[in-house]
Amino acid sequence: PAGHDDPKQEQLERWRVAPEDTRLTTDQGIQVDDTDNSLAAGERGPTLMDDFHLREKITHFDHERIPERVVHARGSGAYGHFRLHESLAEYTTAEFLCDTSLTTPVFVRFSTVAGSRGSADTVRDVRGFATKFYTRQGNFDLVGNNMPVFFIQDGIKFPDFVHAVKPEPPNEIPQASSAHDTLWDFVQLQPETMHMMMWLMSDRALPRSYAMMQGFGVHTFRLVNAEGRATFVKFHWRPVLGTHSLAWDETQKIAGKDPDFNRRDLWDRIEAGDHPEFEFGVQLVPAEDEHRFDFDLLDATKIIPEEEVPVRTVGRLVLDRNPDNFFAETEQVAFHIANVVPGIDFTNDPLLQARLFSYLDTQLIRLGGPNFPQIPVNQPVAKVRNHHRDGYHQMTLQQGQASYHKNTLSGGCPAVGGEGSYTHFQERVDGNKIRKRSASFADHYSQARLFWNSMSGWEREHIVGAFRFELGKCERKQVREGVVAQLNHVDHDLAVQVAKGVGVEPPTPGIAEGHGRTSPALSQDRA
Ligand code: HEM
């Protein structure tokens, strides 16, 4: 429960400013006599520079905007709690995943990806599902999506991909939609997008509520235990209410009638005490099984089918408090995939590796310099002590003369190392510097086909309908043909059905290899 037994809420308390707290003042604390009339030379005369209140009021207003996120600009957030019910101490030293008596405060931000900050909620898009766990060992951010795979395998393509998805440069059309030439041109030329495109054209891209959406860490991470033994892990969130979508036609109408539909739903649920809940699950793969699969664990365009590695449910997340201030909290929160606690480590997934650079880099400009971890929503509940100093918006009053390691002047240096400190997993790495993706990343169609095979009849109809609508808006015929040719590698029948709806000759049977594997967990009938 939110309150003073929650260290995060207690920390936020000292920043809260209630409207009735005081009389109207300037930022310097001077009480204001009149805020409707500027100071002027005579009743009809010019305004005077002396009016410090006018100048401050206008200046602050002039500087209210900060850059929106380069992706995931549109979002909604909430605080909550994570409780563990099954210890993972056999696999990790992360305390919040070992000690079932702990309650960990969290902040979650749900988002769309392509649209700008003011765009509609119910568009066809991926949804972000980012969670900041304020653990006693420091912040752990699980920066995931509501789909378990991604469009590309290597983060070096991310700027290309996002440029293809975002509105086009000449006219900034379309605002937030996959119905345009640049996206489909990228797709036809980058077959690794095919699996994710199947998800994007499915009803998963139209969540009914943020409380009815799955979440995935996407990448394979590592858990590391007290003996230094690593286990591969995929993280999952499962909504207790089940996974539910809107119908495409509904989303169109809602986007007009209530563009804040998902945001409002999240807010209202929490205000009404109908708290969104998610089960937390892990898929665990022993290190020695790294090469056991017919795909690469480091390839973010692949799932580990639940039939092969079941999801073990070990905890539960409850969202139970709305933020006080959208800008201060939901807008200024800074998630970063590199924020890990001892016992959780990365893998060599090349998409993950690029993300390790990107988030801090973008937040340095978005949030104005290196001190944004001091913004209340971003502050860990764990004690922060280091030798960083200065920078824009420095808020802390570091005590002592010496801000360097080692020193004998400031009553002793903070200790380095020892019990509880983060040590990186000692993975052996040895190789030539090359720009070449491993052959184990080459199969772009089998899991796209697995997804298609796993769909029920109505889900398939919706997928075909989505391809026809979105791809059908693509003006260049060669692009539509190119995408249909790619789909033909996924499933011939799918390609023929889409071709018929987008003015393209149905293809002859493609190279799609026939095996009809399914994964029932992928169908929303079962999710
Ligand atoms: C933002 C997820 C891939 C760069 C976000 C957010 C989420 C997310 C949920 C919103 C965070 C928030 O609510 O504040 C993912 C997932 C990915 C992925 C699940 C793939 C598995 C990438 C890649 C890059 C990237 C490959 C770059 C190489 C960014 C940037 C932001 C962002 C720059 C804006 C962050 C900010 O301004 O605070 N991503 N992303 N993402 N992502 Fe990703």
UniProtKB/TrEMBL annotation:
Physiological role: Decomposes hydrogen peroxide into water and oxygen; serves to protect cells from the toxic effects of hydrogen peroxide.
EC number(s) given by UniProt: 1.11.1.6
Keywords: Heme, Hydrogen peroxide, Iron, Metal-binding, Oxidoreductase, Peroxidase
Cofactor(s) the record lists: heme
Disordered, as annotated region: 1-44
Enzyme class name: oxidoreductase
GO biological process: hydrogen peroxide catabolic process; response to oxidative stress
Protein name: Catalase
GO cellular component: cytosol
Family: Belongs to the catalase family. HPII subfamily.
Lineage: Bacteria, Bacillati, Actinomycetota, Actinomycetes, Streptosporangiales
UniProt: heme binding residues: R69, R109, F158, R355, Y359, R366
Keyword hit for ATP-binding: no
Per UniProt, location of the 3'-histidyl-3-tyrosine (His-Tyr) cross-link in this chain: H336-Y359
Catalytic activity: 2 H2O2 = O2 + 2 H2O
Keyword Iron part of the UniProt annotation: yes
Residue stretches making up the Catalase core domain: 25-413
Biased composition (Basic and acidic residues): 1-24
Catalytic residue list: H72, N145
GO molecular function list: catalase activity; heme binding; metal ion binding
Source organism per UniProt: Actinomadura litoris
